[in-house]
Amino acid sequence: MTDWQRDWPAPAKLNLFLHVVGRRADGYHLLQTVFRFLDCGDTLRCEPRSDGRIVLATPLPGVPPQADLTVRAASALRAATGASDGVSLHLEKRLPMGGGLGGGSSDAATTLLALNRLWRTGLDSARLQRIGLALGADVPIFVHGRSSFAEGVGEHFTDVSLPPAWYLVLVPAVAVPTPEIFRSAALRRDTPAIAATAWRPGFGRNDLEAVACALYPEVARHLDWLRRYGDARMSGSGACCFVEFAREAAAQAALAALPADMRGFVAAGLDRHPLAII
């Protein structure tokens, strides 16, 4: 199998905590968080084209192809490198939109990583991260490819070591727009910052959670159910919520007890992005 025939994984992420520690003069929020990848996600396949066009073969309902992050990532890589190759992008979408699992950002990062290899553009991780940051604040962590304490707008990383874990992730039937959460007057923006070396598993909370729960009661309902199993938290700006287990069997047993009107999945935590080696 050649690289053009392979499937390129775009894994989900969780924010194990997420604090808003300030706001820049340009309006961007300053964050501290720990990112962890999950052993589940979307899948990208790339097909070469001879006409030089970038085409999304699997458009998402309601998203114009030119606005899709995979198309924007391919276009940005071409603009940065002078590549002239064409490509058809086939995206198998499994992660929910507006779920806080980083699906669109992960898709964009995988597009950059895959096409950097397929087009032989030869950019290093730091350069790909800079291209990714222009596409979205969460794109660089997927290029960086390791469990990390992140700061700034989410682009400065200190790698962390995390214990093996399984996660039960619930997917409320709502899509939470990130800008709506960050522009809320109720959002706390002054949580004291900590040093990356001071972080420990279980620390902190998600500062966006209270706002999301107030605007979307389904998020609050799912969190309330999860809390019978431990320290449940929302990921990113929502809507997905998670709780950690030390053993897969315990996570699967909790999933089996899920009420009929809720849906979710179990996934293992990953220390490295599956494409971190390229």
SSE layout:
Blueprint: E1 8-23, E2 29-49, E3 54-56, H1 69-81, E4 86-92, H2 103-118, H3 125-133, H4 139-144, E5 148-151, E6 156-159, E7 166-170, H5 178-182, H6 209-215, H7 217-226, E8 233-234, E9 241-245, H8 248-256, E10 264-270
Parallel strand pairs: 3-4
Antiparallel strand pairs: 1-2, 2-4, 2-5, 2-10, 5-6, 7-9, 7-10, 8-9
Helix pairs in contact: 1-2, 6-7
Give an account of the 3D structure.
This protein is an alpha+beta fold and 278 residues long. The chain is built from 8 helices and 10 strands. The radius of gyration is 19 Å and the shape is globular. The mean pLDDT is 96.
CATH A-level architecture of the largest domain: 2-Layer Sandwich
Percentage of residues assigned to helices: 25-40%
Global structural class: alpha+beta
Global morphology: globular
The Rg value, from CA coordinates, equals: 19 Å
Q: What do we call the CATH topology of the largest domain?
A: Ribosomal Protein S5, domain 2
Mean pLDDT over all positions:
96
Oligomer: single chain
